[in-house]
Amino acid sequence: MDRYFWNIGGAEADGVACVMCGADFLKGKITSVAVGRNPEDESSVRACKAPCAAALAADAERMAREMWTAVGLESTEGPDGDTFGVDGHFGSLLRDLKTLAGTEALLTTSHDMTTIRFLLSLTARHAETAMMRARLVLAQAKETDPDGADGGE
To answer: 3-state DSSP call for residue 50?
Structure first.
């Protein structure tokens, strides 16, 4: 799954400058690596190989650990080995949410009624699917919680 970098512009959005420190890859001899995508046009965005890409990777790992802790798991493997993986219900939920974020962005800029109707139908379909998948993942996360805590609900 690609990470999207929102609120970037100029050289960072074009992939010729680091999304972390702003270093210009065209002016300096800086090794860069692709670290995600610009949600506007799905183009790759890049970061300096060291130290910026390493910092992004560490941040992503920290966020993943926090999410797994929030659902009551110690690792990235769910109770059936697949539910919380990128190919399971959790990964499908993340893809639905990514689609919803994209349709929100398109709805804010669209003026054509045919396009707006299509985007609204897409939103309705993915919102309903995301709701069902979120409930399924939540139910399976509760099953794995030995204390029976409901995460503050």
So the answer is: helix
Residue 48 forms beta bridges with which residues? 32
Distance of CA 91 to the CA centre of its chain: 10
Q: How far is it, in rounded angstroms, from Cα 66 to Cα 54?
A: 18
How far is 118 from 121, CA to CA, in rounded Å?
5
Tokens 């204390």: give the residue: 147
Among 101, 100, 102, 86, which Cα is nearest to 129's?
100
| CA–CA separation, 1 and 35 (whole Å) | 11
Q: What is the pLDDT of residues 21-61, one digit of tens each?
A: 989 988 888 888 888 888 888 888 899 988 888 888 888 77
Q: What is the mean pLDDT of residues 136-151?
A: 67
pLDDT tens digits for 75-111?
Answer: 544 444 555 555 577 777 888 888 888 888 888 888 8
Whether the CB-CB separation of 58 and 69 falls below 8 Å is answered with no
Supply φ then ψ for residue 7, to 5 degrees.
Answer: 60, 40
Distance CA 143, CA 15 (A): 43
**φ/ψ of residue 81, rounded to 5:** 80, -5
